[in-house]
Amino acid sequence: MKKAYNQDERIAKMTFASVYPHYITKVEKKDRTISELHQVIEWLTGYDKKKLQELIEKKVTFEEFFANASLNPNASLIKGVICGYRVEDLENPLTQQARYLDKLVDELARGRKMDKILRTP
Q1: C-alpha distance from residue 66 to each of 1, 44, 85, 118 (Å)
Q2: Gap between the Cα atoms of 118 and 120, Å rounded
Q3: pLDDT digits (tens, 9 = 90+) for 64-116
Q4: Are 119 and 74 within 8 A, CB to CB?
Q5: Angle CA(25)–CA(27)–CA(34) in degrees, nearest 5?
Q6: pLDDT, tens digit, for every residue of 18-43?
Q7: Quick one: which of 92, 41, 95, 99 has its CA closest to 70?
Q8: Among 41, 18, 59, which Cα is nearest to 97's?
Q9: What is the pTM (predicted TM-score) of this model?
Q10: In terms of DSSP H, where are the helices of the chain?
Q11: Which of 2, 37, 55, 89 is most open to solvent, judged by the fewest CB atoms within 10 Å of its CB?
């Protein structure tokens, strides 16, 4: 399964700062706000706006980004397909966490209600 390995390695070495502007563009194109994006990221990782900015400035990799995150206990409720992969079936924890974030950003951009995105009852 060389393809999955390459994906795992690529995600691990990618910097969060290189992807973050794409998240902003994606949500703003669909009339969602940066504040909502930060809310989604904080829900998943525990990083508030200040800490997020610090991580962006340090240009941390996704590996570092998720290694120090306090992943939300309800993250496992994130299901579905993103980038051609079913997130709940991904075996590499880091890849799965990065795809969780991608999925949440996608749901935000698609106009899903915040309580659904944040998996609140």
Answers
A1: 24, 10, 19, 18
A2: 6
A3: 999 999 999 999 999 999 888 899 999 999 999 999 999 999 999 999 999 99
A4: yes
A5: 90
A6: 999 999 999 999 999 999 999 999 99
A7: 41
A8: 41
A9: 0.91
A10: 2-13, 16-29, 34-45, 49-58, 62-67, 93-109, 114-117
A11: 2
